[in-house]
Amino acid sequence: MRAILGLEDGTWFEGSSFTGDGETRGEVIFNTGMSGYQEILTDPSYSMQLVCMTYPHIGNYGINPEDGESDRVQAAGFIVRECCKRPSNWRSSESLPDYLVRHGVPGIEGIDTRALTRHIRIQGAMRACISTREKDPERVVAKAREIPHMEGLNLVDRVGPENPYLWTAEGPREVRLEEGGSPWSDTGPRIALLDMGAKRNIMRLLTEYGLEVLALPPWYEYEDIARLDPDAIFLSNGPGDPAPLPGIRNTVSRLMEDFPVGGICLGHQILGLCLGGESFKLKFGHHGVNHPVRHLASGRIEITSQNHGFCVDLSDREDIITTHVNLNDTTLEGFRHRHKPIMAVQYHPEAAPGPHDSRGFFSDFNEMVRARTRRPVYQ
């Protein structure tokens, strides 16, 4: 089935739909991963984005129930050079086309993904539309121009959970937070995780260190969280611009005065804004599993997984210690507070499916929490 990808600047590509009839819109970006497409598709940070994979052959190992980073496909659309319809892998339970069809997400193949990637690198990420219904490319381009820009867009409300849940060995378990009751089993330090679109592997790795994770909706306020008596706060990844989230920033500003706080990706940006930094949009973002980052204290180079279109600048803050810097564009990739138990990274140390160079972040966060916990039974 003929499909058209139209970009807001008037550029368009013709390909074929491998998911049948459909139409979708969002910001078109590219991802440089050679594998991990299931984790990419289910990462809530990709909400309202059309993901173009730079590796030409996608889908060969299929889909399985274990590798999803959330309970549904979060990307708005998927763009590949060639989609494999008959996967071959012992873990596969479903093909990529069937998976996308089941979740109602359009996929397009047969376009020159190298040309599209080069165009985005030169012109920047932009609004786009994929359609099998419109035959005129100009109509597809016009539909791309109708959607809002990513700047100033609150996407956290689209992906955050409606109710709190505990992370268990079997996955998320929804809980009712009755007044006077406690959701904690006290098997380890209590981590209240503000879920702004959290990837599941973040919670898996936190619990591997014996931390007990209670995930909370992003609209929870300081009083709601403090009443739960956590030992520390964790701010998850999430989609979109950190600037239009004043409610979350107000809550975090109060939390970081009373609790140790860690953050990843959007959590890193929120903490940066709370500490007086400024956020800005990258030209085409960092999306892939091969981004080099320097750990300044050791000089070690970490190859990291990344997915963000915005960054934060904290260069003028004397109370902030820069811990990590991106070697491609020198943007801030990690920081610690000089006097308070606050640490954050912009990249994704949970990195499912990989690489695993930077998982030491979770060890460092665990040590920070246990050094300050008020419950000696956890020591």
What features would you describe in this structure?
This protein has 379 residues and is of the alpha/beta class. The chain has 10 helices and 20 strands. It has helices at residues 37-42, 96-102, 113-123, 137-146, 156-159, 200-208, 222-226, 246-258, 266-274, 360-372, and strands at residues 2-7, 12-17, 23-31, 49-53, 57-58, 77-79, 82-83, 107-109, 126-131, 165-168, 171-174, 190-194, 212-216, 232-235, 261-264, 278-295, 301-313, 320-326, 332-337, 342-345. The strands form 3 sheets. An 11-stranded mixed β-sheet has the order 11-10-13-12-14-15-20-19-18-16-17, sandwiched between helices. The chain has a 7-stranded mixed beta barrel with strand order 1-2-8-6-4-3-9. Helix 8 crosses helix 9. It is globular and about 65 Å long.
State the secondary-structure class. Answer: alpha/beta
Could you tell me the strand content as a percent range? 25-35%
Mean of residue pLDDT values: 95
What is the number of helices?
A: 10
Low-confidence runs of at least 5 consecutive residues: none
Taking all Cα atoms into account, the compactness measure Rg is: 21 Å
SSE pattern: EEEHEEEEHEHEHHEEEHEHEHEHEEEEEH
CA-to-CA gap between the ends? 61 Å
Strands of the widest sheet, in order across it, are 11-10-13-12-14-15-20-19-18-16-17
The count of β-strands is: 20
Query: Rough shape?
Result: globular
Q: What does the largest sheet look like? A: 11 strands, mixed
Proportion in helices: 10-25%
